[in-house]
Amino acid sequence: MTTSIRIVGGNPLKGSIRIRGAKNAALPLMTAALLTDETLTLTNVPCLTDIQTMAELLAQHGVYINHTPGSYTYELKAQTITNTTAPYDLVSKMRASILVLGPLLARCGQAKVSLPGGCAIGTRPVDIHLNGLKQLGAHIELSEGYIHASAPNGLVGANVTMPLVSVTATENLMMAATLAKGETRLINAAREPEVVDLANCLIAMGARITGAGTDSIIIEGVSHLHKATHDVLPDRIETGTYAMAAIITDGDLELTHTSLSLIPSITSVLQQAGADIQATTNGVRVKASLSPIIGVDVMTEPYPGFATDLQAQIMAIMTICQGASMITETIFENRFMHVPELCRMGANITVHNSSALVRGVPYLSGAQVMATDLRASVCLVLAGLAARGETTISRIYHLDRGYEKLEEKLCNCGASIERIAA
Ligand code: UD1
User: Fold this and answer.
1) For residue 167, how far is its CA from the centre of ligand 1 (angstroms)?
2) How much is the pTM?
3) Residue 222 has pLDDT above 70, yes or no
């Protein structure tokens, strides 16, 4: 059965929302289980379809997974890796599947991983992952849509300079290097908090890593890793999304189990726009102190810059700003698919190459719209919450990849939102 989301806009959101562990931290952390024959226990793993996809992928590699439905704890034990192939049907569902490549190669000396292919938000190649692994001594061939990687005598530490900042390439190479012989230096590494979280878990497993969180990460290879327990860090994209939900609805939300320190540039943009954002003992409180908010220019950048995964959501807010906002996307080349949908709701947006000029309008109007990717979907939810009248969003399966209990969390704060059979 296909489902849609129906929202009747106009209710200010008030109350408290619990932020869960970060999807983009949990996915690489789960693949780290492949690096050891002992149990890796992860707590605060969000309940999302991407996590289920990763669990399926790991299970078919031979990882024993102990997880009770509804719980946030996963025990992952890769005592024996029975299969080093990551098949097309799972990799094509979720690009982050490429994160098994480094660990499988490091642990087993071989891996065959389907090429992820294109995706809705751009071409997203994997050349940085592959060139980095080659520099660690892997032999890589591409044939029949698969990456065939081998390192029969093990990987060897090297200096790897990445031409672009890539989050998953940094994570893949960092994991591969934990079991390589000698020292690896990752130069121009991603500084995202999820990279630091992965490094902390690997260190708890016995890896020797310094510099995570800077653009130069040094990994001294060890012969084996061991069991560990790790709590997944809070989801900064979920935090930023609900902060923006508070602002766009002229509401007042406390976001718990998260931290202002994870969203420095998001906070700065939202404060410039006139929002009141304060740290609380257990999270963040966000109020829209100015209504309408003021147009602010935003450019997406690698961390600590403004996250591309919040670009669609900030655009939703800016549609009803005073003045105008120029939103420039520098990470992905095709990440404005939400623009025509926002325009169907009355937004005034013109796209010039990688920039969108958003001229504020007095209000959005409910409409039938279609979700295209994960963050575009939630941008339409935000727009629907603020719009006059009823909005119906179709193709919402993307939302379940990245937002746990979205309707429930919003309903509890006064939103009129429900999932309906389409
Ligand atoms: C990760 C996040 C994703 C986020 C993105 C940017 C996960 C699971 N996903 O994706 O939510 O939107 O970071 O913050 O953590 N590139 C290459 N060659 C490569 C790899 C990347 O050219 O081998 C390019 C990409 O096309 C893109 C840029 O580098 O233009 C950054 O992408 P990257 O950081 O790799 O994104 P992901 O790690 O896939």
Assistant:
1) 6
2) 0.96
3) yes
How far, in Å, from the CA of 308 to the mean position of ligand 1?
10
φ/ψ of 325, rounded to 5, equals: -140, 135
Q: For residue 302, give the amino acid letter.
A: P
Q: Taking the chain, what is the end-to-end CA distance rounded to the nearest angstrom? A: 8
Choose the most confident range, by mean pLDDT, from 113-127, 178-192, 327-341. Answer: 178-192
**Between 23-31 and 167-178, two packed helices, what is the crossing angle to 10 degrees?**
30
DSSP state of 3: E
Q: What is the pLDDT of residue 334?
A: 79
The catalytic site residues sit at: 119
- Amino acid identity for residue 226 in this structure: H
Instruction: Judge whether 1 and 212 are in contact, CB under 8 Å.
Output: no
Handedness of CA 257, 261, 265, 267 (dihedral sign): positive
Per residue in 293-304, pLDDT tens? 999 999 999 999
Q: Distance, CA 282 to ligand 1 centroid (Å)?
A: 30
Token look-up 């959101």 returns 13
Instruction: Read off the pLDDT of residues 59-117 as tens digits, 9 standing for 90 and up.
Output: 999 999 999 999 999 999 999 999 999 999 999 989 999 999 999 999 999 999 999 86
What share of the chain in percent tops pLDDT 90? 91
List strand residue ranges (DSSP E) for 11-116, in order.
14-18, 39-43, 64-66, 74-77, 85-86, 110-114
Of all protein residues, whose CA lies closest to atom 26 belonging to ligand 1? 124
Closest to 273 measured CA to CA, from 257, 289, 284: 289
Within 6 A (CB) of ligand 1 lie 24, 27, 95-96, 122, 124-129, 164, 166-169, 194, 308-309, 331-332
Asked whether 189 and 166 are in contact (CB, 8 A), the reply is no
Reduced to 3 states (helix: H, G, I; strand: E, B; else coil), residue 254 is strand
